[in-house]
Amino acid sequence: MSTTPDATVTRAEYCVIACAEAWRGSGELLASPMGLIPGIAARLARRTFAPELLLTDGEALLIDGGGECEGWLPYRQHLELVASGRRHVMMGASQLDRYGNQNISCIGDWRQPGRQLLGVRGAPVNTLNHPVSYWVPRHSRRVFVPAVDMVSGVGYDSAAAAGPSATRFHHLPRVVTDLAVLDFATPDHAMRLASLHPGVTVEEVREATGFTLVLPGDIPYTRAPTAAELRLIREELDPTGLRRREVPA
Description:
By secondary structure, this protein is an alpha/beta fold.
């Protein structure tokens, strides 16, 4: 295990940093964070190491890292960004398998599911047209499963089976959970344990995952926020501490 963790940083703050890193080096690209911690993370990235990142208010306005209006983004232009690959969305997942197939549609046989969820929504188009990362606030075997009940977001094996039209723009940069950061940087794109949040062990992650993860020889800790990043998180982006409700200390 490399580096020594900072004991003053909470688990939620490590999660914010891990999510923010998904947009590092993106340039002028639309960030679409879904969820509280991804939302804080996208604004943090914009305020620090990704100043060209585009943010929206979730409706029709472009905003800056402080939430102030910067411009107008009508729905047709939003869809154009999606279709042209100029967006990186961080979605949630009810189920994920080892190749990144995501389910947000139903639990059980899709012909007669035991539980109906959101439906596939925009997940197929998202995953085939632009980068998609995932945020999972509760890492468990209920989410990380050997096989999803229905493919909503397309994983690496499903994209490969569909052919070049599906793999051309397909890219799943990372999965961030309350325990770790995972990615698909392996020869066959099987999920890999990329970093551990301080206080978490490899065994904890393995026990909370319903399939075998690829384990590198040296697994680092998730990087800690800088003093400037920590100040922004605590004083400006989330001064009331809502992040701790999503990931308790």
